[in-house]
Batch of 4 targets.
Target 1
Amino acid sequence: FMHSSEKGASLRNSLTSRPEKIDYNYKRNITEGGLAYYKNLNAKKSFFIELAVGTGFGSYKATEANSVIVPGGRLYDHNVFKLYFQPSVYYASSNIVVSVGGKFSSINFNNIKTNYTSQEREARSITTDNKLNISTFDFFMKADFYPAKLPRVGLNLQMLTTTDLQPNYYLNQNDFNVGIGLSFRLNTKGGKK
C-alpha cells in the first residue's frame, strides 16, 4: 500500500519563441495498493526477486499563472486510475533495504477539465478529449535505512524516472522524481523483513 502526495511549482521557458516564463503549479495525489510474490535468491536470505500487481487511483491538478501568454491563467485537472505490474530485485539486511525495478502501468486519465483554448492545447500537446488511456514504464531505485535503536522506523530515499510508451500528450506527470520520506516496518522477525 502506498499513498503519494506531491506539490510543486516550476518556472520554465515559454513554449513559444517569446522570452516570457511560465509559472506552473501542480498538486498530485495517488493511492496504490497491490499484492506481491517474492522469492529468496540466496542461502543468506538477503537477495530477493519480487513480482507485484496492483491498482491506483487519485487526482492531478495543475494551474498556469496569469501571464501575457495565458491571460487570466489556466487549469488542467483530471482523475487517474491505473493498473500495474512491477518486477524488482532487492537486498535486505537488518539496517538497510535496497531495491531496483520497473513498473509497467496502464493509466486512464478521466474527467479531464481545462480552460486552455484549442490553440493552447495544440501548442502544449494537451488532449482535447475528456479521457485518455496511456501506458508507461517507471524505472526506480529505493533505499530504506533503519537505525539499530529504532528498527521499525527508517529513512527512505528514492528515485523514479517515467517513460510514456505512447508519447502523444503532455499529461501533467513528472519524467524524473526524487523523494525522501519515512519507512515503517510491520514485522522485524529475523531483522530483515
Target 2
Amino acid sequence: LSGCEHVGIDTEWADDAVDESCDDSLLDGNGDGGGTKARDDFIHQSRLATIQLAAESEGAHGCRVYVIDALNGIDGAESSPYHLELSSLLEWLLADDARSPQLVGFAFSGDAHLIAKYLNTQSGGTQSSSPATAASIRQRVIDVQPTAVAFGVGSSAQFPSLRVAYEAFRDVFASVVQHRATRSQVRGNFGW
C-alpha cells in the first residue's frame, strides 16, 4: 500500500447478538449523530469482522485487493501479534501524514465507529468507540455517498446507492483513469 495515492476501504461487521437479516435501512445515515436509535444500537452491538482494501498502484502491480480478517484469533487474545500488526496498519492508514494514502469509502460512518472501537480495544480500552476517534477517522476518508449528495445526487433524506453514485460520476472516473494512463505514458516516454 506504500506508494499508493488512493486506497478504497470498506468493512464488514459481525456480532452474535445481531440478527443477520437486519434491515439495511438501519445503516443509512451520515454519521453526524443524527442516525436512528435502531441504527446506533446496531453499530453499538457490532464488531469489526473484516477490512477490505483496494489499491491501484502504477507499474506492474496494477490493482490489488486485500481482505483482512479482524476476528482472527479473537477469543480473549485481542492483543495478539496479529491484532497488534493490524492495529499498526490501521493507524498508518488513518494517520494524517503525507506518506499515507488518501482513503476513499462509501457510507463510511458506521465503519469509522467500528474501526475506532477496534483500535480502542487493541490499545487496552473498553469495547466502545470514542466519538472523537470516529470523527477523526471520518475526516481522513473521502466518503463518496455524502460527496455525491453535495453534488446533487440524492439528498440527505434519501442517500444515493453506490450504483447511483457511480453512474452519476462515471464520466469523471473515466477521465481520471484516462488522465493517469496518459501521465504514465508521458513518464515512460521521457524516462520519469
Target 3
Amino acid sequence: VDEQRERYRHRNEQLSKEEQLRLRLQNDIDRLRAGLFSDLLFGKPAGESAFDLAALNERYHYAFCPGCFMVLVVKVDGGQQMHTSGAFAVLQEKLAGILRAGLQPVCLELEVCFRASRAWGVLNFTPENAPQVRRQLKAVLGELLVQKNIFPEQFTIGLGSVVQTPAGLPQSALDADRAANQRLLEGTGKLL
C-alpha cells in the first residue's frame, strides 16, 4: 500500500511538473504574440522586412497566411473605478472570449491584446470571408451591447483598413485608432 501511494505521489508530481512546463510555454507564446501589438502601437521594429509574413510568423509565433489583414480596436468607456477594481480583468476575459468566439470561425488567424481601456485585435482572413468578418463584427458588437446589464461600460469598435500584406498593419492600426476616436463625435456603441 505504501509503495502504491509513493508511485501515485510520484506520478502526480510528474504531471504537475509537466503541467507547469506547459503553462510556462503557453505564457511565453502569449508574450511573444503580444509583442506584435507593442511593435504595431509603439513603433515598428527595425528593418524593412519587419512586417514580412514569414518574419511575423517566426518572430511572434503566429500562423498568418496570405490573404487580408486588419487591425481592430474595441474602446471600453467607463468610470475610473472600473480600472481600479478587479472587474476590469473579468471584463477583459469576457471581451476576449466574445471576440474570439465570433471571429475565429471566419479568420485564418486572430489575436487579441489589451492596452489600457482598449482591446486590440489583428485579424487575418481570406478575401472571400471579408463580408462574413464584417457581419461577425456587427454580431460581436451586438453581443457586447447585450452584456450591458452585466457590464455598464460603453463599447465602440474601430476598424482599421483591410490590407493585403502584413506590411500594411501599422497603417491599419492607425486607422482603427482614428475610427475608435470618432466615437467622441458619433457616439459610443457603434462599429466605426
Target 4
Amino acid sequence: SKVDHKDISSKKILYSVGQSGYQGWKNFRDEITDRERKLFSEKLSSTCKKNKLIVDFKLHPASLQDQVFFYRNLSFNSHSKVLTYESVNRLMGKYGIIVFDMIASRALTYALYHDFEIILYVPNQLPVRTENFQDLESRVHIVRNVLELEKKLDLFSQNKLKHKTSNIKFNEKYFGHLSYEDSIEKAFQRIIG
C-alpha cells in the first residue's frame, strides 16, 4: 500500500546522495561525476541557506567513508543533518521534497511509487530515452544544471513549485496494479532500460 504519512507542508528537503562514481560496476556515461555531485551539493546547500530551508543529506551506504567528511563540512553552521545509517525509504515521509542525483536508483523508484515530491538532477550530457524521459518529466522536477536547481528551490521556498505527485497516467504506465516489489522492478527496467 502507498505511504500516506508524507509531510508535504514541510519545508525540509532530503538529498539522497548517490554513490561515488568509482563505487560498483556501472556505466560511467550514465552517472554524474564526483565533481558534478560536489558542485550540485554546494549549490543545493547555499540555495537552501538563502531561502531558509533545511536540507538533510542522506549518504549512500556504499560511499559513507568517501562522503561523510565533505557533507559534515557542508552542513556545518546550519540546521542540516548528515544521515548515515538510516534507511532512505523510511526517512522520505518526513520531508516536503526529495532530491536525487541518480536515475538508476531504487530509492528514486520507491519515491515515485509512494508519490513523493521529487527533484532529480540529470546533467545535460547524460544519455536518456526520450519517451521515457518525457514521462519522467511529467512526474518529477528535473533539473539539468545548478541554475535550474536554484530556480526550483526558490519556488519551493515560496510555495509556488507545481506539485507533480499523483500522476495517474505515469503510475498506470510504470506501476499498474503490481505489488510494490514488482512495481519497483518494472519501473526500474522501463526507465533505465
